[in-house]
Amino acid sequence: MTSAWRAAGQRDEISFGSVDDQRLPAAGSQPPGAAGPAITTSGLTKRFRGGQVAVDGIDLAVPHGAVYGFLGPNGSGKTTTIRMLLGLVHPTSGSHQLLGTAMPDGTNTVLPRVGSLVEGPAFYSQLSGRANLARFDAADRTADPRTADARIRAALDRVGLLSAARKHYRAYSLGMKQRLAIAAGLLRPRELLILDEPTNGLDPQGTREVRGLIRDIAADGTTVFVSSHLLAEVEQICSHVGVMRTGQLVFEGTLDELRSRGTARILVRTAQPAGAAEVLAKLGLADVRTGEQEASAQLGGQAPEEICAQLVHSGVPVAGLATPRPSLEDLFVELTGEGFHVDG
Amino acid sequence: MSTAEVTSPLPGPPAGQAAGPVGPVIHWIRFLRSELSLIFLRWRNLALLAVLAAIPVLIGIALKLSSPGGGGGAGPPFIAQVAGNGVFLALVSLTVLLTLVLPLAVAVVAGDSVAGEAGHGTLRYLLVIPAGRTRLLGIKYAALVIFCLAACAVVTVAALLIGAALFPVGPVTLLSGTTISLGAGLLRLAFVALYVAAAMAALAAIGLAISACTEHPIGAIAAIMVLALASEVSDSVPQFAVVHPYLPTHWWLSFDALLRSPIAWPDLWHGLASFGIYAVIFGAIAWARFSAADVTS
Fold first, then answer.
1. Residue B45 is part of which domain span?
2. Dist. CA B231–CA B251, nearest whole Å
């Protein structure tokens, strides 16, 4: 869109650590690009009839300009949270703000600035792709009817559906349906895009296309909140993550913060494992282990190059040096427990 | 909303955004037109309207074939007059269709109105646009009322055309014995069609309330029909006489009040008041239910 939006997004990303300070004064509607989180929730809870607690007091803070991956196993409350954010489901307790405006009071002013895909695409099967978008645009009392055709064309073009615009929706492939749903979210410029499992059911090509699309949209300065249970997807496109487990938010932060939760190790490949282990122990590293042709220890805060120099200095022949970290997958399983649905 | 957009320092105005705000009336009309095209471009609904047009034709042909013997005896009112004046075929058709087919057509479209969107999942997308829950319900009901008007117009016009083709047409003799000119007779007929449309609009309000409570359109349609038929059956049981005036279907056929000279206003007002009260009550139920509902479809 414009460099002003992008700059604002970057500034917010840097100030992510102090999000709490910015959260309070957010009564009225904020102009685009203003400082402050795109989404905040406090104690958001949904208890369905029958007593089942789908979402249990979560506090989200999604910074402006972020691509926020909302992760969790199936049934961990992601979709219910998204439905509450968009005003489809009424929270049992707690509150939330979108773009600095309290919901659900601000529904009519905020939601036009938010594009969304909720639990898969849903359109009128008897209408063409273009007619479907025209239908949804007609329902938008803030959309200018005079520019509808141009905007619909642009949205279809953006998702690569222009050539299939006149085809009936029922003849669309799953990937085309998913892309049409994203096009509906792009009928007008948005400050926030909320996408619930946008690559669900897509083949690898479709997944790549959608991922590329999300990257493009984020590069324009739009905040993207994307739920997923696919680790690979989140790792590739997200700057921030929130992890859900049985209705609770068990982690929130940047992807790097999540990675740094895992304890990194240093791994030395050498013909003299015992000698290497001795050096590592002397350097004060914890959990020193030796194996066949290798020695390893917890890296702690030490610089690998220093350790390497010490090893060489002590006459240990270093054939290879690595600092493996636990994979994101390991971290997620650790956070979300057994039964995590890992497709990635 | 539009002022906020104009005054905020929005860096990139949407491509091709024309200057000047668009009034809310334009947005209502645009949404209503979209809703109407969904109803009237749907093959199922067009088939319903075709059936509504075909039945008067069948009745006309049947009466033409049997007319030498005279239609006296049992049968719907007005049937004896058709042979003498084709205009009466419209009244016969409305009377016959009111017992089942007209309410069925309204039940199908009304039952589908909200439940169909919920079943398809399009409801959640309309709501996050945001179409506005109250506004969406208002548009849905406005479109249903227009469908009721169209259905009654289709029956009346089809019956008039086939009546004029098969039977003589001339000055209309009213039920009270007075004869009025053909033009005045057609005007009365138009009011009859409007009265029937009002009756159907009340049924549509009941249908909208039922439709807002479910995401299964077939269930909603069935419930509306069961309700209408139960009301008609109760209306024909003399032991229930005390509740008859309060039944939703009781005043449907009271349009013969319009065919007297002078017009029998009390009956007419009773009927219209009944329709109005049903529409308000069930419209309120639909709104209360829909504005508080969790949309999980």
1. 24-292
2. 11
